[in-house]
Amino acid sequence: MNKDKIGEKLIELRGSQKREDVAESIGISISALQMYENGQRIPRDCIKIELAKYYQTTVQDIFFN
């Protein structure tokens, strides 16, 4: 898993949505989402699933392609 590529994908998926709205919907802190998007951290598996559900895609597409 390339943290930078994952971060780019998450930013692309978020588009014009506010980071605060996405984080609140998923149940994580804004700073956690920011760290995922900046390539500083990789989310736990349960968060990966929630992100994929929120963005209506697959965990595979976000984190492994």
Describe the protein's architecture and organization:
It holds the Pfam family HTH_3. It comes from Kurthia sibirica. One of its GO terms (molecular function) is DNA binding. The protein is an all-alpha fold. The protein has a single domain, classed as 434 Repressor (Amino-terminal Domain), CATH 1.10.260. The protein has five helices and no strands. The radius of gyration is 10 Å and the shape is globular. The mean pLDDT is 95.
Query: What distance lies between the first and last C-alpha atoms, to the nearest angstrom?
Result: 9 Å
Helical amount among residues, as a percent range? 55-70%
Give the total of beta strands. 0
Query: Percent of residues in beta strands?
Result: under 5%
What characteristic shape results from the CA principal axes?
globular
Q: What is the H level of CATH, i.e. the homologous superfamily?
A: lambda repressor-like DNA-binding domains
Low-confidence stretches: none
Order of helices and strands: HHHHH
Largest sheet entry:
none
Gyration radius (Cα, Å) is: 10 Å
